[in-house]
Amino acid sequence: LVSLPSFLFSAGYLRAQxxxxxxxxxxxxxxxxxxxxxxxxxxxxxxxxxxxWEFMSLVSYFLVVFEHEHEASVKAxxxxxxxxxxxxxxxLAAFLLMHAQAGTxxxxxxxxxxxxxxxxLKNILFGLFLVGFGxxxxxxxxHIWLPYAHPQAPAPVSSIxxxxxxxxxxxxxxxxxxxxxxxPPVWWGNVILVAAGISCLVGVIYxxxxxDIKKLLAYHSVENIGIIxxxxxxxxxxxxxxxxxxxxxxxxxxxxxxxNHAVFKGLLFLCSGSxxxxxxxxxxxxxxxxxxxxxxxxxxxxxxxxxxxxxPPLSGFVxxxxxxxxxxVGLRDASSGGKLFFAGMMACLALTSALAAACFxxxxxxxxxxxxxxxxxxxxxxxxLSMRSAMIFL
Length: 394
Fold this sequence. Notes:
With 394 residues, this protein is mainly alpha-helical. 80% of the residues lie in helices and 0% in strands.
């Protein structure tokens, strides 16, 4: 859903930005990147999962430092490489503990042995998985690499990294915590909810202060990972309380927002690439008037901005509304302490949506509606057919 339009977009984007040889290299690395993500979710044992995970991290590192002549790309790549390997170390520790207890590397064998794990071991595994996968997902405060790495990669790669790669970490959290360790204690879900709420607010507040359009979008990835985890954390709380139907609804809402974020964030990153090719800058303060020069890019960006701001009837509204509904039912049926907690999470989600709307009103207004602030913006041309087709599809 994200990779194919990104490949279509890259046909025009890479030709405009790089030589033929470097374009072929970028395309080849991106193919390996997509295959490595597919290998992660296709894994059925811990060793294959770890190899696929590490291959995904290394290929994405080479894409982050693809423009290695820029110091910012090298710095971003180094931060990303260090952070991703710290996360891998936590995953390796968790895998070794699981193997020592279960005596097998296969997922099915570990799942069968997991009911015999002690509560202390399960708590340790939960902590290791939360840090290991949270590092890749960009949960605050483990998100440090994300606003550096996403802006430095080529725009179609940023689209795939934000739309798909960080969601592989969400898959990992669900696969190993919910899928193998069994019914969680309530505090696991509460920890995820608190981390989610902090990620929502920190991500959107930092985004409000950004003028680099790709960095702004990167911080919104942190925010939307928080929204996804609100659904997953609520699902774990309801599951531990024995509210099976509501837990399923919460997980479904979180997963639906995972898909929605992949689509509208992939679209927005492609739009940022179109703007960069046309004007040579990512700084929205140097843009303006692009709605006249690039009407199809402007329309595409507006749809993505409306979706990420949770405006009806677009996809972002539907999934965030479902998460609201889940919290509302939990608020109605929980004990007094639970009511206060769920009310706080609902307020956090409402504030996040409002701030996201404010951020994209600023971004769209300054970049597309204001008067041109430079010669490049005044002379910008619409993107090529392949780039426009990819944006319009998403």
